[in-house]
Specification:
Blueprint: H1 6-21, H2 25-33, H3 36-43, E1 51-54, H4 63-68, E2 72-77, H5 80-92, E3 98-101, E4 114-120, H6 129-139, E5 140-151, H7 156-164, H8 184-191, E6 195-207, H9 213-223, H10 225-233, H11 238-259, E7 264-275
Parallel strand pairs: 1-2, 1-4, 2-3, 4-5
Antiparallel strand pairs: 5-7, 6-7
Helix pairs in contact: 1-10, 7-11, 9-10, 9-11
Keywords: Methyltransferase, Transferase
Protein name: Methyltransferase domain-containing protein
Organism: Arthrobacter yangruifuii
Length: 276
Protein backbone atom coordinates (compact mmCIF):
# COMPACT_ATOMS: atom_id res chain seq x y z
CA UNK A 1 0.00 0.00 0.00
CA UNK A 2 1.31 3.47 -0.95
CA UNK A 3 0.86 6.31 1.54
CA UNK A 4 -0.63 9.14 -0.50
CA UNK A 5 -0.80 12.81 0.43
CA UNK A 6 -2.68 14.72 -2.32
CA UNK A 7 -1.21 18.08 -1.32
CA UNK A 8 2.35 16.79 -1.31
CA UNK A 9 1.72 14.97 -4.58
CA UNK A 10 0.53 18.18 -6.21
CA UNK A 11 3.81 19.86 -5.27
CA UNK A 12 5.84 16.92 -6.60
CA UNK A 13 4.00 16.89 -9.93
CA UNK A 14 4.35 20.65 -10.34
CA UNK A 15 8.09 20.26 -9.79
CA UNK A 16 8.29 17.47 -12.36
CA UNK A 17 6.45 19.58 -14.93
CA UNK A 18 8.88 22.42 -14.30
CA UNK A 19 11.94 20.17 -14.65
CA UNK A 20 10.82 18.58 -17.92
CA UNK A 21 9.88 22.00 -19.31
CA UNK A 22 13.46 23.20 -18.91
CA UNK A 23 15.76 23.12 -21.90
CA UNK A 24 14.66 21.30 -25.04
CA UNK A 25 13.83 17.63 -24.52
CA UNK A 26 12.72 17.32 -28.14
CA UNK A 27 16.33 17.98 -29.16
CA UNK A 28 17.64 15.43 -26.65
CA UNK A 29 15.21 12.80 -27.92
CA UNK A 30 15.99 13.49 -31.56
CA UNK A 31 19.76 13.43 -31.09
CA UNK A 32 20.08 10.49 -28.69
CA UNK A 33 17.14 8.20 -27.93
CA UNK A 34 15.14 8.31 -31.17
CA UNK A 35 16.10 4.71 -32.16
CA UNK A 36 14.45 3.33 -29.01
CA UNK A 37 10.86 4.14 -29.97
CA UNK A 38 10.74 1.80 -32.98
CA UNK A 39 12.52 -0.90 -30.94
CA UNK A 40 9.74 -0.78 -28.34
CA UNK A 41 6.97 -0.73 -30.96
CA UNK A 42 8.35 -3.88 -32.58
CA UNK A 43 8.92 -5.64 -29.25
CA UNK A 44 5.35 -4.91 -28.14
CA UNK A 45 4.00 -6.30 -31.42
CA UNK A 46 1.97 -3.19 -32.20
CA UNK A 47 -0.06 -3.25 -35.40
CA UNK A 48 -2.84 -1.35 -37.13
CA UNK A 49 -5.63 -3.06 -35.22
CA UNK A 50 -4.39 -2.01 -31.77
CA UNK A 51 -5.56 0.62 -29.31
CA UNK A 52 -2.28 1.83 -27.80
CA UNK A 53 -1.47 4.04 -24.82
CA UNK A 54 2.01 5.51 -24.49
CA UNK A 55 2.44 6.68 -20.88
CA UNK A 56 4.88 9.54 -20.21
CA UNK A 57 5.21 9.76 -23.97
CA UNK A 58 7.26 12.94 -23.94
CA UNK A 59 7.57 14.19 -27.50
CA UNK A 60 6.31 10.94 -29.00
CA UNK A 61 9.48 8.90 -29.39
CA UNK A 62 7.45 5.65 -29.25
CA UNK A 63 3.93 7.01 -29.80
CA UNK A 64 4.64 8.38 -33.28
CA UNK A 65 6.23 5.14 -34.61
CA UNK A 66 3.30 3.23 -33.06
CA UNK A 67 0.84 5.46 -34.91
CA UNK A 68 2.76 4.91 -38.14
CA UNK A 69 1.73 1.24 -37.98
CA UNK A 70 -1.88 2.39 -38.29
CA UNK A 71 -2.66 1.76 -34.61
CA UNK A 72 -5.07 4.01 -32.71
CA UNK A 73 -2.56 5.71 -30.39
CA UNK A 74 -2.97 7.96 -27.37
CA UNK A 75 0.20 9.72 -26.21
CA UNK A 76 -0.12 10.87 -22.60
CA UNK A 77 2.25 12.99 -20.54
CA UNK A 78 2.28 15.15 -17.43
CA UNK A 79 4.06 18.05 -19.15
CA UNK A 80 2.18 20.25 -21.65
CA UNK A 81 5.38 21.56 -23.25
CA UNK A 82 6.45 18.04 -24.22
CA UNK A 83 3.04 17.23 -25.69
CA UNK A 84 3.08 20.43 -27.73
CA UNK A 85 6.50 19.53 -29.15
CA UNK A 86 5.24 16.04 -29.94
CA UNK A 87 2.22 17.40 -31.79
CA UNK A 88 4.49 19.43 -34.05
CA UNK A 89 6.70 16.41 -34.75
CA UNK A 90 3.67 14.29 -35.62
CA UNK A 91 2.31 16.97 -37.95
CA UNK A 92 5.67 17.14 -39.73
CA UNK A 93 5.49 13.37 -40.31
CA UNK A 94 1.79 13.45 -41.31
CA UNK A 95 0.92 11.08 -38.47
CA UNK A 96 -2.39 11.21 -36.60
CA UNK A 97 -2.65 10.34 -32.91
CA UNK A 98 -4.31 11.67 -29.77
CA UNK A 99 -2.28 13.80 -27.34
CA UNK A 100 -3.53 13.71 -23.76
CA UNK A 101 -2.41 15.56 -20.63
CA UNK A 102 -2.34 12.84 -17.96
CA UNK A 103 -0.60 11.79 -14.76
CA UNK A 104 0.94 8.31 -15.04
CA UNK A 105 -0.18 7.65 -11.45
CA UNK A 106 -3.81 8.67 -12.05
CA UNK A 107 -4.73 7.94 -15.66
CA UNK A 108 -8.05 9.34 -16.96
CA UNK A 109 -8.97 6.22 -18.97
CA UNK A 110 -11.43 3.38 -18.30
CA UNK A 111 -10.31 -0.04 -17.11
CA UNK A 112 -9.08 -2.45 -19.81
CA UNK A 113 -9.36 0.19 -22.54
CA UNK A 114 -6.09 -0.49 -24.42
CA UNK A 115 -4.63 -3.47 -26.28
CA UNK A 116 -1.08 -2.33 -25.61
CA UNK A 117 0.36 -0.01 -22.97
CA UNK A 118 3.93 1.16 -23.55
CA UNK A 119 6.48 3.62 -22.21
CA UNK A 120 9.93 4.48 -23.56
CA UNK A 121 12.21 5.90 -20.83
CA UNK A 122 9.16 7.77 -19.56
CA UNK A 123 7.07 6.18 -16.82
CA UNK A 124 10.28 5.35 -14.97
CA UNK A 125 10.32 9.02 -13.89
CA UNK A 126 6.95 8.75 -12.13
CA UNK A 127 7.81 9.23 -8.44
CA UNK A 128 5.60 6.48 -6.96
CA UNK A 129 6.42 3.29 -8.80
CA UNK A 130 3.63 1.10 -7.46
CA UNK A 131 0.96 3.65 -8.30
CA UNK A 132 2.30 4.02 -11.84
CA UNK A 133 2.51 0.25 -12.31
CA UNK A 134 -1.02 -0.27 -10.97
CA UNK A 135 -2.44 2.32 -13.35
CA UNK A 136 -0.62 0.79 -16.32
CA UNK A 137 -2.09 -2.61 -15.47
CA UNK A 138 -5.57 -1.22 -14.87
CA UNK A 139 -5.97 0.31 -18.33
CA UNK A 140 -4.52 -2.69 -20.21
CA UNK A 141 -7.09 -5.31 -21.21
CA UNK A 142 -6.61 -8.96 -20.22
CA UNK A 143 -4.41 -10.52 -22.87
CA UNK A 144 -3.05 -7.10 -23.83
CA UNK A 145 0.63 -6.27 -24.03
CA UNK A 146 2.86 -4.29 -21.71
CA UNK A 147 6.05 -2.83 -23.18
CA UNK A 148 8.74 -0.78 -21.44
CA UNK A 149 12.19 0.55 -22.11
CA UNK A 150 13.95 1.82 -18.97
CA UNK A 151 17.49 2.94 -18.25
CA UNK A 152 19.35 0.49 -16.00
CA UNK A 153 20.95 1.57 -12.71
CA UNK A 154 24.35 0.33 -13.93
CA UNK A 155 24.18 1.96 -17.37
CA UNK A 156 25.21 5.45 -18.37
CA UNK A 157 21.97 7.28 -17.57
CA UNK A 158 21.59 5.40 -14.28
CA UNK A 159 25.16 6.38 -13.42
CA UNK A 160 24.44 9.96 -14.48
CA UNK A 161 21.65 10.18 -11.93
CA UNK A 162 23.93 8.63 -9.30
CA UNK A 163 26.49 11.38 -9.96
CA UNK A 164 23.79 14.05 -9.73
CA UNK A 165 22.35 12.77 -6.45
CA UNK A 166 24.79 14.43 -3.99
CA UNK A 167 24.46 17.71 -5.88
CA UNK A 168 20.65 17.66 -5.89
CA UNK A 169 18.06 18.64 -3.29
CA UNK A 170 16.83 15.57 -1.35
CA UNK A 171 13.95 13.77 -3.07
CA UNK A 172 10.48 14.06 -1.52
CA UNK A 173 9.68 11.36 1.07
CA UNK A 174 8.18 8.21 -0.40
CA UNK A 175 9.47 8.72 -3.93
CA UNK A 176 11.74 6.22 -5.66
CA UNK A 177 14.75 6.43 -7.94
CA UNK A 178 13.90 6.28 -11.69
CA UNK A 179 16.62 3.76 -12.67
CA UNK A 180 15.06 1.14 -10.38
CA UNK A 181 12.71 0.50 -13.30
CA UNK A 182 15.75 -0.90 -15.12
CA UNK A 183 16.16 -3.68 -12.56
CA UNK A 184 14.39 -6.97 -13.37
CA UNK A 185 13.66 -7.80 -9.73
CA UNK A 186 12.03 -4.40 -9.25
CA UNK A 187 9.89 -4.90 -12.36
CA UNK A 188 8.86 -8.34 -11.11
CA UNK A 189 7.81 -6.87 -7.77
CA UNK A 190 5.71 -4.19 -9.48
CA UNK A 191 3.94 -6.57 -11.86
CA UNK A 192 3.76 -9.68 -9.65
CA UNK A 193 0.64 -11.76 -10.21
CA UNK A 194 -0.73 -9.37 -12.83
CA UNK A 195 1.14 -10.48 -15.96
CA UNK A 196 2.40 -13.59 -17.69
CA UNK A 197 5.22 -14.18 -20.17
CA UNK A 198 7.35 -11.49 -18.53
CA UNK A 199 10.55 -11.06 -20.49
CA UNK A 200 13.44 -8.70 -19.84
CA UNK A 201 16.54 -8.12 -21.92
CA UNK A 202 19.46 -5.79 -21.32
CA UNK A 203 20.45 -3.97 -24.49
CA UNK A 204 22.76 -1.12 -25.41
CA UNK A 205 22.07 2.06 -27.34
CA UNK A 206 25.20 3.40 -29.02
CA UNK A 207 25.50 7.20 -29.07
CA UNK A 208 27.90 8.67 -31.65
CA UNK A 209 26.43 12.18 -31.76
CA UNK A 210 29.22 13.88 -29.75
CA UNK A 211 32.80 14.52 -30.85
CA UNK A 212 34.19 14.85 -27.31
CA UNK A 213 33.05 14.61 -23.68
CA UNK A 214 32.90 18.40 -23.53
CA UNK A 215 30.43 18.41 -26.45
CA UNK A 216 28.15 16.01 -24.62
CA UNK A 217 28.25 18.08 -21.45
CA UNK A 218 27.53 21.33 -23.29
CA UNK A 219 24.59 19.78 -25.13
CA UNK A 220 23.02 18.21 -22.06
CA UNK A 221 23.56 21.33 -19.93
CA UNK A 222 21.70 23.31 -22.58
CA UNK A 223 18.85 20.87 -23.26
CA UNK A 224 18.26 18.13 -20.64
CA UNK A 225 15.78 19.30 -18.01
CA UNK A 226 16.92 17.15 -15.05
CA UNK A 227 20.51 18.30 -15.54
CA UNK A 228 19.50 21.93 -15.97
CA UNK A 229 17.51 21.76 -12.74
CA UNK A 230 20.54 20.57 -10.78
CA UNK A 231 22.80 23.23 -12.23
CA UNK A 232 20.22 25.92 -11.48
CA UNK A 233 20.15 24.80 -7.84
CA UNK A 234 23.96 25.10 -7.73
CA UNK A 235 24.06 28.65 -9.11
CA UNK A 236 25.25 30.17 -5.79
CA UNK A 237 28.11 27.62 -5.56
CA UNK A 238 30.60 27.92 -8.46
CA UNK A 239 32.96 25.42 -6.84
CA UNK A 240 30.26 22.77 -6.78
CA UNK A 241 29.38 23.50 -10.40
CA UNK A 242 33.01 22.96 -11.38
CA UNK A 243 33.16 19.75 -9.35
CA UNK A 244 30.01 18.42 -11.02
CA UNK A 245 31.39 19.32 -14.45
CA UNK A 246 34.50 17.28 -13.72
CA UNK A 247 32.56 14.28 -12.45
CA UNK A 248 30.29 14.27 -15.49
CA UNK A 249 33.21 14.53 -17.90
CA UNK A 250 34.88 11.56 -16.20
CA UNK A 251 31.62 9.61 -16.44
CA UNK A 252 31.35 10.30 -20.17
CA UNK A 253 34.94 9.22 -20.71
CA UNK A 254 34.32 6.00 -18.81
CA UNK A 255 31.29 4.99 -20.85
CA UNK A 256 32.70 6.09 -24.20
CA UNK A 257 35.93 4.16 -23.63
CA UNK A 258 33.91 0.95 -23.42
CA UNK A 259 32.68 1.35 -26.98
CA UNK A 260 35.92 2.70 -28.43
CA UNK A 261 36.54 6.34 -29.33
CA UNK A 262 33.76 8.85 -28.65
CA UNK A 263 30.94 6.35 -29.03
CA UNK A 264 28.96 6.04 -25.82
CA UNK A 265 27.07 2.93 -24.70
CA UNK A 266 23.82 3.55 -22.85
CA UNK A 267 22.37 0.38 -21.36
CA UNK A 268 18.61 -0.09 -21.10
CA UNK A 269 16.20 -2.83 -20.07
CA UNK A 270 13.58 -3.93 -22.59
CA UNK A 271 10.51 -5.33 -20.83
CA UNK A 272 7.55 -7.11 -22.41
CA UNK A 273 4.67 -8.95 -20.76
CA UNK A 274 1.09 -10.06 -21.34
CA UNK A 275 -1.64 -8.80 -19.04
CA UNK A 276 -3.22 -11.65 -17.08
Amino acid sequence: MVDFDPEADSVIKARLRAIWSLGNYAAVAAETVSPLGPVLVRAAGISGSDRVLDIAAGTGNAAIPAAETGADVTASDLTPDLLNSGKQLALARYVHLTWSLADAEDLPYPDASFDAVISCVGVMFAPHHRLAAAERLRVCRPGGRIGLINWTPEGFIGSLFAVLKPYSPPPPPGTQSPPLWGNREHIESLLAGQVRQLRTERRTLLIDRFAAPEDFLAFFKAHYGPLLAVYESLAPSPDRINALDEELLELVKRYSARAGGMVMDWEYLLVTATRS
